[in-house]
Amino acid sequence: MKNFSKFIICLLVCVFCLGLTACGKTNTNLIHPSADAVVVGNGGMVVTKGDYVYFVNGYSAIADKANSDRNNSYTVGALMVAKMDSNGNLILNEDELLSDEYYNFISRRLCGFEATALYIYDNYLYFTTPSLEDDKSEKWAKDRVDFYRVKLDNSGDMKKLYTTEVSNSNVEFNFYNNGQQTFALVYEKGNNLDHSNISNRLLRISGSGDKLEVARNVTSALLEETAVEETENGKNLFYFVKEDDEYQLKHYNVFENASEDFGTPSLYTSSIPNASSFTATVKFSGNGYVYIQKTVSYSSNASHTFSEIHRSSIENAQFSIICAYEDDAYSNMFLSNNASRLIVIGGNNIGFYGFAGDQQVAPIPLVSDSDGVNFMGFMPNGNMVYYDNNNVIKVVNINEQNINNVETITVATVSDVYTTNNMYDLDDNFVYFYKTVGSNVYLHRLSLNNISADEKEEMLGVYLEDDIPEKEETTD
């Protein structure tokens, strides 16, 4: 009986090991990219290096998960890599799905969730997942975010770098590299979930997991890679702190871990009469300038606000106002790729403020779309990509010499786009978005190289068997 038990145990171990091998098999066609291959798209759902694309296989909200899901092995939302051909095309089989020989799963943990972010620096892939840890009540702290790194060839073990002290909805972060070191800056907003005396802090996490607190009482931080100022000494960014009801803008060098005050303190206070509250936010940085927003609410009408956008040269720290507007007229603002204009979006309209030196009370209109406007990003040439509420993806073609000569091009009409949380990516070649197929949400991409209304999206990843769409019949 003991011998039989030993046999059963050995058999189960063998089956388990075979299962691991099947899930984590290494395809011989997948040789990790060369060290000097170009990286495109850090910080989103998709990042490419050379002919290899690393991505999350769809999206699944961590908010919907029960405690029993903590240690699940996921397909939808897993982390994957696929090899492309020399033209950037996915390698498909006869069913027009990813060919088995040209993709691998890197991690079966849930990586396609509310705080997805992928980065490639040197020989490592950095990514995020929901935490598996317990909170102080010994319940699953699923809303917190784990930061991991793994080698691009998937050799060795994954290394956890940090677990946030706040929920994924209250954290902002980005990774930076200077050719020698990699750091993450993590801005944790609000109170720490376990210790209320730690709140609104900015942290620097090294590529090996060492943690350093940069500042507390942080009210806003500008962490996007496009907003980082490159100098000989490192990468510099801006953040606001608020102490004793006074704001102060800080200029921070990521790699030297050095902060200095920036600008005139009186600028960060409200001089508008009858204001009941006042906020100062760092909004943008680019092309040698930093932009801040001053917003006040009035004691007579708390819902009424007035905002100003100021900018300053990074060299001389002298601010001047460039635009002003009432009552949160614009749901979103973006600095164009060449930092030549401020793009504003409100309701069904896209407009811009030019930076000729004169204050503009109202934006110059670019686009009015009765179906609504949702901004997706800028193409490398500065053109904007957006979609309307009918899931029609469009490009605004801006003529730099004549701003009145604006053309809107319809790229594609895409059904069942998953619009919750407005999660999109844009790189030099594609716009990426989530789409509902069957019972799940999968990642898709649309080429921006050959723009036409006939363009069709393609799925990036693998389906669960029950979600595989029926193949369209072709007529001769």
- Ends distance: 67 Å
Number of helices: 1
* Major β-sheet profile: 5 strands, antiparallel
Strand content: 35-45%
Strand order of the largest sheet: 1-2-3-4-5
Q: Which bin fits the share of residues in helices?
A: under 10%
Average predicted confidence as pLDDT: 84
Give the tally of β-strands: 34
List low-pLDDT spans.
1-25
Structural class by secondary-structure content: mainly beta
Q: Which term fits the overall shape?
A: globular
Question: If you compute it from the alpha carbons, what radius of gyration comes out, rounded to the nearest whole angstrom?
Answer: 24 Å
Q: Care to describe what's here?
A:
The chain is mostly beta strands and 476 residues long. Helix content is 5%, strand content 45%. The strands form eight sheets. It has a five-stranded antiparallel sheet with strand order 1-2-3-4-5, with no helix packed on it. Strands 14, 15, 16, 17 and 18 form a five-stranded antiparallel sheet that branches. A four-stranded antiparallel sheet has the order 6-7-8-9, with no helix packed on it. Strand 15 and strand 16 (234-243) form a beta hairpin. The protein starts with a helix and ends in a 17-residue tail after the last strand. Residues 1-25 have low confidence and may be disordered.
